[in-house]
Amino acid sequence: MSAATGIWGLVPAAGTGTRMKAALPKQYLPLLGRPVILHTLERLCGYARLQGVLVGISRDDVHWEKMRPVIFPRLMGTSEGGATRAATVLNALIVLAKTAREDDWVLVHDAVRPCIRHSDLDKLIDAVSADGEGGLLAMPLTDTVKRADAEGRVIETVPRQNLWRALTPQMFRLGSLRDALKRALADGVEVTDEAAAMERVGARPKVIEGRADNIKITLPADLVLAELYLKQQGPAP
Ligand SMILES: Nc1ccn([C@@H]2O[C@H](COP(=O)(O)OP(=O)(O)OP(=O)(O)O)[C@@H](O)[C@H]2O)c(=O)n1
Ligand SMILES: C[C@](O)(CO)[C@H](O)COP(=O)(O)O
């Protein structure tokens, strides 16, 4: 990676959190007394290797302004979210491209993964910037995997060798990722992560084993787990 290559953070935070079934979007639910997203932004904005962090929020978002996380260094502001995570990320990349360069790296990290550690960010950046094809934090599957039908009856046991759970951040070059997401959306293909969009155009992203505590807050029980992890981690990001 040339010395001039920039590294940017992009945080999709425009979801509604339907699976959480809460009164407000889950990225704004309280976690140790602060909104989930503030924990995530504190981690990312406090990470010196990022030049800036852009957050994609819904145009209907009424919580961001109330929160005004003005204290964070590197926080660039917000871009308009879309109907899907992919659309939110694409819109943010288009905004980021006004400041960053086409071959700069972008780390896309879910707003609802507040337990991300700086050591995992280092691991991802060091591995991917040396490799060039892009990559993502992930965890190898350790349970047996079943595919079931609509009635909950097992159809098959899926061989789990070489199966990984994708986490975030996912790290790709700005221009390539923007174009790949544009292509997926134009083809009507809903990709649930950035790597899937890149794979569609022939990339072979690298999986980098991440920490088990980098959980995505999706269901109520995840909030309890995130609280335990943050308490266990202590102040060290
Ligand atoms: N249109 C969307 C949908 C999701 N996200 C973001 O993508 C991340 C991961 O998505 P997910 O966990 O699915 O969040 P939600 O879509 O809010 O959850 P649900 O699927 O339960 O509605 C979250 O930070 C979420 O805010 C986004 O920026 N724009
Ligand atoms: C990007 C991601 O967190 C990787 O596992 C996941 O795909 C997000 O999925 P969601 O349904 O938008 O939570």
From TrEMBL:
It comes from Sulfurifustis variabilis. The gene is ispD. The keyword Cell division does not apply. This is 2-C-methyl-D-erythritol 4-phosphate cytidylyltransferase. Belongs to the IspD/TarI cytidylyltransferase family. IspD subfamily. The record marks 160, 216 as: Positions MEP for the nucleophilic attack. GO terms for biological process: isopentenyl diphosphate biosynthetic process, methylerythritol 4-phosphate pathway. One of its GO terms (molecular function) is 2-C-methyl-D-erythritol 4-phosphate cytidylyltransferase activity. Its EC number is 2.7.7.60. It is an enzyme of class 2 (transferase). PROSITE patterns: ISPD (PS01295). CDD domains: CDP-ME_synthetase. Keywords: Isoprene biosynthesis, Nucleotidyltransferase, Transferase. It catalyses: 2-C-methyl-D-erythritol 4-phosphate + CTP + H(+) = 4-CDP-2-C-methyl-D-erythritol + diphosphate. The record marks 19, 26 as: Transition state stabilizer. Pathway: Isoprenoid biosynthesis; isopentenyl diphosphate biosynthesis via DXP pathway; isopentenyl diphosphate from 1-deoxy-D-xylulose 5-phosphate: step 2/6. Catalyzes the formation of 4-diphosphocytidyl-2-C-methyl-D-erythritol from CTP and 2-C-methyl-D-erythritol 4-phosphate (MEP). NCBIfam families: ispD. The keyword Transferase applies. It comes from the Bacteria. InterPro entries: IspD (IPR001228), IspD/TarI (IPR034683), IspD/TarI_cytidylyltransf_bact (IPR050088), ISPD_synthase_CS (IPR018294), Nucleotide-diphossugar_trans (IPR029044). The lineage of its organism: Bacteria, Pseudomonadati, Pseudomonadota, Gammaproteobacteria, Acidiferrobacterales.
